[in-house]
Design goal:
The chain is an alpha+beta fold. It contains one helix and eight strands, in the order αββββββββ. It folds into two domains: 35 residues; 85 residues.
Length: 139
């Protein structure tokens, strides 16, 4: 009988020890869940290339923005547009050197090369875009 009580006591103590050991792990999980999320890296339009169908001409175009924020848009071998691009208030803003339309800003679809997404300009116009690997362009 003493052996049975001894075994029961050891089992009970063993169970208590396991629960106490598990408690700090639970506290660590709670602390990790309550920790602030890491801030994603800021997106830059520089050194990116995009493909889309121009809504006005219905031509397939490719637009590249270099490291200095200059963009060139081509439709096949045709020079389609060029100007400057900057990141402003979470948007990519383009100013053409070929027209007097002024700055046009588009929401940032924040997609990786090879992925497609949708962007919307300040006028509410939507545009389906595909980001591809950066292609440097010159005039």
């Amino acid at each position: 009988m003493r052996k049975l009580m001894l075994i029961a006591a050891v089992a009970a103590l063993s169970a208590c020890t396991k629960e106490e050991a598990a408690a700090p792990a639970n506290d660590a999980n709670i602390a990790a869940a309550e920790a602030p999320a890491a801030t994603p890296a800021a997106f830059t339009i520089n050194e990116t290339t995009w493909e889309y169908i121009d809504p006005k001409t219905k031509k397939a175009v490719q637009e590249s923005v270099d490291a200095s924020g200059n963009y060139i848009t081509t439709a096949g071998t045709e020079h389609f547009d060029h100007g400057t691009a900057i990141d402003k208030d979470g948007k990519a803003c383009f100013t053409s050197a070929m027209n007097k339309d002024g700055e046009m800003c588009w929401t940032n679809p924040m997609i990786e090369p090879g992925a497609s997404g949708e962007t919307v300009n300040d006028k509410g116009e939507k545009l389906a875009v595909k980001r591809i690997a950066y292609v440097p362009k010159t005039m």
